[in-house]
Design brief:
Fumarylacetoacetate hydrolase, domain 2, 262 residues, Fumarylacetoacetase-like_C, mainly beta, twelve-stranded mixed sheet, five-stranded mixed sheet, 6% helix
Length: 262
């Protein structure tokens, strides 16, 4: 499959052939495993997350969606930003903040924008997608979805992305992709983008009705319900059908690059 990736230390995206089944890359001298090469996250823009876009995720709230201050389920996409300090890569370590014992793993399909997107129609929305990537939208476990969750969502290293961007024409139907999460090689979560409340085209249309998405930006379609919890030492692998695998490990924050400067 045709894809683009960024070698660690470079700011340029390179076009390559990838094998999602083996998570390998074909270079001039043959096929190599990602275990042999350090690949940076392939992002050049801003990452926007979407809440409550899986049917089961919204249903799990029950009557709480009718509580104050809103009194009803959301009528527009509920968005948040994963800032640059959160960006991590395939094979990178995710820091467990001091005083915490668990983190929540958010397996998400990322839509990488290819051209400026303003007030899109559902019929042509997919033509604005350059490709698709895998995102581990990590967060501190919390219950509220109504208050800004910066301290829960925007910690250092809490947004692993990659290992590459699969070209849009390689994915026939982004609304029917199986997503699996393995913790220490044990399957802990399985869902599909067929369970989205707003399918990909509709989500793009609804979001760009009130904000512009620029080339390089990434829009996450959402995180399925029952997101698994992890502890220090756990190894995570997120698989999205036809795109590949994203792997990370949870470590004490004292062992990560973000704390080396303190």
């Amino acid at each position: 499959m045709k894809a683009r990736l960024k070698v660690l230390g470079s700011q340029v995206l390179s076009s390559v052939d990838v094998n999602p089944a083996t998570n390998s890359v074909t270079l001039l001298d043959g096929e190599v495993s990602l275990d042999d090469h350090q690949i940076d996250n392939p992002i050049t823009g801003t990452v926007f997350g979407t809440l409550l876009n899986y049917i089961g995720e919204l249903e799990s709230l029950g009557d709480a969606v009718y509580d104050k201050p809103y009194g009803s389920p959301p009528i527009a996409p509920v968005l948040y930003i994963k800032p640059a300090n959160t960006y991590n890569r395939n094979g990178g370590s995710i820091p467990m903040p001091k005083g915490l014992s668990n983190l929540r793993i958010g397996a998400a399909l990322g839509l990488v924008i290819g051209k400026q997107a303003i007030a899109l129609d559902e019929e042509n929305a997919l033509t604005y997608v350059a490709g698709y990537t895998i995102v581990n939208d990590t967060s501190v476990p919390h219950d509220s979805v109504y208050r800004p969750a910066v301290q829960h969502q925007a910690r250092d290293g809490f947004c692993s992305i990659g290992p590459w961007i699969v070209d849009h024409h390689e994915v026939k139907n982004p609304d029917d992709l199986v997503i699996r999460v393995f913790i220490n090689e044990k399957l802990q979560q399985e869902n599909s983008t067929s369970n989205l409340i707003r399918p990909v085209s509709r989500l793009l249309a609804d979001v760009t009705e009130f904000m512009t998405l620029s080339p390089g930006d990434v829009l996450l379609v959402g995180v399925p319900e029952n997101a698994p919890l992890v502890q220090i030492g756990d190894k995570i692998r997120i698989e999205i059908e036809g795109i590949g695998n994203l792997e990370n490990v949870i470590v004490d924050e004292k062992e990560t690059k973000w704390r080396e400067l303190i």
